[in-house]
Amino acid sequence: MKIQENILIKQYNSFGINVYANLFAKFNSINELGELFELSKKSKFAYPRQTLIIGGGTNILFTKNFDGLVLKNDIKGIKIVKEEKQHIYVKVGAGESWHQFVLYCIKNGWAGVENLSLIPGNVGASPMQNIGAYGVEIKDVFHSLEAYHILDKKLVNFTFNDCEFGYRDSVFKNKHKNEFVITDVVFKLNLIPKYNISYGAIVKELDKMGVKDLSLKVVSQAVINIRNSKLPDPKVIGNAGSFFKNPEISSSQFKVLCSQYPKIVGYSLLNGNIKLAAGWLIEQCGPSIGISWKGFRKGDVGCYNKQALVLVNYDNAKGNELYDLSKEILQSVESKFNVILESEVNII
Ligand code: EPU
Q1: 5 is an active site residue
Q2: CA-167 nearest atom, ligand 1
Q3: Which of 50, 92, 141, 316 is the most exposed place for a label (fewest CB within 10 A)?
């Protein structure tokens, strides 16, 4: 374990942005992490100044070289911690690949994460932003997690309630931002599957696949097929999934928008508000009249042609070019619909 200097971190961010970090190191245990923090005290970047912890790097946009220390969480391991009649509790290292973990669950007959197949990134980031797709969020299978408090140098256990999960949100993104490093997550998985195929696209895909009997494997495969059909593979085209969150507006604002735009896509929430499909809003706007952002490309930056919510780096885009495009999109949506989009991606 050592701290490397002046390291290209293109391979550590799924946008594939060509940027350098002054200092870079990987850690695979809490001890190593503690040692790295000690070592870093000798540099001008000692925590909390310019220290960035990354997992899979799938939700970050670097707009410039990182002037500081990047620490990559590589803590591995999958361990059963408890078994009940209907549930199994599995502790997973933050540095495990999320999708590999999903496949492992499916192989073992553990249900609950199959709808979250093929989400890029590592396990440690999954509770941080409460990842979700196709009617399921991580909070639905979350039991607890352990996180290292950087200043106190001790491990803290977080229960479900402690995490204060919201839509793509948790305490680690606001109240405790940059205070903790998530080291392990315990998931509570079902031994008796309860399939969630409420999301229309899954039903359609299962039908297309000719599925008669549901299984974890076929539901996972349906999700994989849907994702492959509309989301770019970051190994081929740089991206960070949805760039913006789907915005929440009041039902009265929705009524006004519906009268102007009868095709607007929105879903009712339990609190009475409406969640709008940001992809739809973006698709209706563009760089000039009559041209949609969807499929737009300028140099190496663009808005994906099959999902307008996804910004892409076709080859050698600069982070600030992507950031500028995101701002233009945001402004065009605001001026047309009076709705403000919020970035889902962490912009550095
Ligand atoms: N839509 C359009 N044009 C587009 C994209 C979407 O009109 O270009 C409309 C369509 O009406 C479509 C609806 O938006 O039916 C919903 O689209 P989609 O099913 O693709 O889902 P999304 O709301 O755009 C969210 C998540 C995705 C997740 C999918 C599926 C957010 C920010 N994104 O996208 O998560 O995979 O639902 O559940 O909530 C991610 O977070 O990185 C991510 C990919």
Answers
A1: no
A2: 39
A3: 316
Beta-carbon count within 10 A of 84 CB: 9
Q: Map tokens 């002037």 to a residue.
A: 67
Ligand 1: does its nearest atom lie under 6 Å from the Cβ of 224? no
- DSSP state, residue 99: H
Q: Alpha helices, DSSP H only, in the chain?
A: 30-40, 98-108, 125-128, 160-163, 200-208, 216-230, 251-260, 278-284, 319-337
Q: What is the pLDDT of residues 8-25, one digit of tens each?
A: 999 999 999 999 999 999
Instruction: Indicate the SS3 state at residue 147.
Output: strand
Let me know if 191 is exposed, middle or buried by CB neighbors in 10 A (0-12, 13-18, 19+).
middle
Model pTM score: 0.95
Q: How far apart are the CA of 134 and the centre of ligand 1, in A? A: 9
Place of tokens 């701002």: 327
Active site residue 168: yes
Residue whose entry in the numeric block shows the structure tokens 């140099």: 299
Q: How far apart are CA 71 and CA 53, in angstroms?
A: 5
Structural domains of the chain sorted by starting position, each given as residue range(s) with its CATH number in brackets: 4-73 (3.30.43.10), 78-190 (3.30.465.10), 238-347 (3.90.78.10)
Residue whose tokens read 């001790």? 154
| 114 assigned to active site | no
Q: Whose CA is nearest to atom 43 of ligand 1?
A: 242
For residue 86, the CA-to-ligand 1 centroid distance in Å is 32
Strands across the sheet containing 20-27: 4-8, 20-27, 66-73, 51-54
Q: How confident is the model at residue 258 (pLDDT cuts 50, 70, 90)?
A: very high
Tokens 């737009």, residue? Answer: 296
User: Has residue 49 got a pLDDT over 80?
Assistant: no
92 forms bridges with which residues in the sheet?
78, 185
**DSSP output for 222-243:** HHHHHHHHHS--TTTSEEEEES
